[in-house]
Amino acid sequence: MGGVDWFKNAIIYHILIDRFAAYTAMDNWDKPVFLGGNIRGITEKLPYLQNLGVTTLWISPFYKTSTYHGYHITDFYQVDPHFGTNKDIKNLIDAVHNLDMYIIADFVPNHCSKEHPFFKEAQQNKNSKYRDWFYFTKWPNSYLCFLSIGDLPKINLQNQEARDHIINAAKHWLSQGFDGYRLDHVIGPLHSFWKHFVKEIKTEYPNVVLIGEAWMMGIKRHELNTINIHHRFLKWLFGGAASDNLLIEYIGELDGVLDFKFQGLIRAYIAHSRISRQRFEKAIKQHYDHFPEDYLLPTFLDNHDMNRFLFDCGNNKEKLREAATIQFSINQPAIIYYGTEIGMTQNKSIWNIPTCGDLQARQPMNWKQQDMELLYFYKKLIEQRKNTPYQ
């Protein structure tokens, strides 16, 4: 693991920029529009996060984008004006470091927005060099994308110029002071790309942490040709959304992956009461037995792509406390999704809404009505964790 020992005991706070702070109105929170949350807002809330006990911020994509959540990137080298300026991101990084905290960002190498100028040129000019930056199956309107989402054309990372463009973007932001990345949809690019990416990054920035998102939830059979993992059909057929076999695949390649297996088990045990305590403990032990000690598996109860844990608990905060206590007892970095510590929930399941259901789990941070008892509980939980660090 080398230079990423700092991450082993990290208390990570996961922020969706547009929905966290400085947003101007909440009226359209259930629509896929920019509400106005920005980078300066995060900087202003650093005292809150420091007081909570957070050691590491994880922010959503801040690059120029066509969507409020930032994952539809139109320029990997610029900050989106909705979120602020290049100076704002540098100020945030410096402010975080001045508080002896760390900051990582989402990085999205697999795909970009169909509004990206390189893709638009590739569609408009069959002789453009950018045509080979993408996977056209029938030019100009049929191409591989992120699963089945046509708005997100898949980048051909086997093209050297395209690969260099992406890797140099990652290096650019690390040069500004970021301490690492959560790598979006790592199952999309080839393993050969990840080996090259990690070598390039670690040669210049040996202490940055690289954590992958390896998750197959919701993937349909016809979308398997857009992902690149070993035995993908068998993993899809038998492995479930987050099998150990999938998470294991990045050992020796990345510093670690988000622990979707833990998330599934804790939800089955606490939120849905589908398994007993004994079965949960046995499954957790078997799970961690699969991995070397230096492989990082950050734990989390929920994130921006699934129901909030409290909602799935029927808004029973005792269940949330029990789950958080178990989470913080695990010898891995712990992630808190923004608002969990103050009792944020949602109105409906994201799975029961045909389009943009995930907005339910992305409601604006509630700065006015907060469960102070729950907030105090999280503060104490973090304090106890820091007093008994894992080696």
Overall mean pLDDT: 96
Count of all domains: 2
CATH topology of the largest domain: TIM Barrel
User: What is the strand arrangement across the widest sheet?
Assistant: 12-11-10-5-2-1-13
Count every beta strand, where a strand is a DSSP E run of 2 or more residues: 13
The main pleated sheet reads as:
7 strands, parallel
Gross morphology is: globular
Structural class by secondary-structure content:
alpha/beta
Helix fraction?
Answer: 25-40%
What would a concise description of this structure say?
The chain has helices at residues 17-20, 39-44, 46-52, 86-98, 117-124, 160-175, 191-204, 232-238, 244-248, 260-271, 277-289, 309-312, 317-329, 372-387; strands at residues 11-15, 56-59, 63-65, 73-79, 102-107, 136-138, 142-143, 145-146, 149-153, 180-183, 209-212, 256-257, 334-337.
What secondary-structure arrangement, pairings included, does this model have?
Layout (H helix, E strand, L loop, with lengths): L10 E5 L1 H4 L18 H6 L1 H7 L3 E4 L3 E3 L7 E7 L6 H13 L3 E6 L9 H8 L11 E3 L3 E2 L1 E2 L2 E5 L6 H16 L4 E4 L7 H14 L4 E4 L19 H7 L5 H5 L7 E2 L2 H12 L5 H13 L19 H4 L4 H13 L4 E4 L34 H16 L4
Parallel strand pairs: 1-2, 1-13, 2-5, 5-10, 10-11, 11-12
Antiparallel strand pairs: 3-4, 6-7, 8-9
Helix pairs in contact: 6-7, 10-11, 10-13, 13-14
